[in-house]
Amino acid sequence: MHALLVDHSAPAGLRLGESADPVPAPHQALVRVSATSLNFGEVRHAIAHAPDGAVLGWDAAGVVERAAADGTGPAAGTPVVTVAMDGAWAELRAVDTATLGIVPEGADPGAISTVPVAGAGALGALRRIGPLLGKRVLVTGATGGVGRYAVQLARLGGAHVLASTGDPGRHGAGLRALGAHEVIARPAEAGAPVDGVVDLVGGPHLVEAFGTLAPHGTLVAVGHATEEPVVFPFGTLVGGDGRHDRSIVTFYLLEDSGLAQDLTWLASQVAAGDLDPQIVWRGGWERAGEAAAALLERRLHGKAVLDVAV
């Protein structure tokens, strides 16, 4: 099969080539991939640490080529959206049926391919905050793929949404169009305390965001874009002055229960136009190096989609 292979001598570490077809385990479906969306973590970390010839990729949308042998999951011919730690950047992908969602007929595979990491990550993080109706929710790093889904989903859940971005002047209008009530440059500008934080930045930004939490509030640590350590000043976690019982929760998408159901629901919302996938770059997978470079250089604020030639 054709696939994007890790090649550390190539631009952005990727080249089109040939790889062996995957052999599905009994609980896996074989999926013919139509589109994949790129994530910063893949191009920043996964490629660098993978051997030459590896087939990476987390997100993919396509059609079931062969159903799982154990009878789980959808039948052959069903449009699906998939997530796993590798295998998305290829014509064929073997994927656990527990991490596979069903897609409405006729939906754009490119738009649907943005759902797994960005959409399901945002949904899972917001669930850890609890019921959102009437709550103040802060999303840091809101211009990225996960952040843009988090803003939309928090608004749909009835929250008062604050979106944090390093350039409110440039990104404010777009974030407000997605559902943000307020757009701020730093968490400290939140004003009144917030009930929940979806933090996609990490480092000192996470520390600052934690300081905005109201009593019983929860910060969900999802992203670590700064790649800086998290260091709390002495006394931050003592809980005095009424700032008690605040939580920091870590999150890992592939251990989230009900992932197949979440992917199915998110795909339906994107297909219906109720969620905007925020695609800002799209092209054939022969242009993967171009897209990866744009992500690494922080020139893309939203999702990059590769259409897979078949």
Structure characterization notes:
This protein is α/β, with parallel strands linked by helices. It folds into two domains: about 1-100 and about 280-305, Medium-chain alcohol dehydrogenases, catalytic domain (Quinone Oxidoreductase, Chain A, domain 1, Alpha-Beta Complex), CATH 3.90.180; about 125-250, Rossmann fold (3-Layer(aba) Sandwich). About 25% of the residues lie in helices and about 25% in strands. The protein has eight helices and 15 strands. It has helices at about 40-50, 110, 115-130, 145-155, 170-180, 205-210, 260-270, 290-295; strands spanning about 1-5, 15-20, 30-40, 60-65, 80-85, 90-95, 100, 135-140, 160-165, 180-185, 195-200, 215-220, 245-250, 280-285, 305. The strands form three sheets. Strands 3, 4, 5, 6, 7, 14 and 15 form a seven-stranded mixed β-sheet that branches. The mean pLDDT is about 95.
Please summarize what this structure is.
This protein has eight helices and 15 strands.
Could you list some keywords that capture this structure?
310 residues; alpha/beta; Rossmann fold; 2 domains; 7-stranded mixed beta sheet; 6-stranded parallel beta sheet; 8 helices; 27% helix; 27% strand
Q: Strand share of the residues?
A: 25-35%
SSE-based structural type: alpha/beta
Please provide the ordered H/E string of secondary-structure elements.
EEEHEEEEHHEHEHEEHEEHEHE
Radius of gyration, rounded? 20 Å
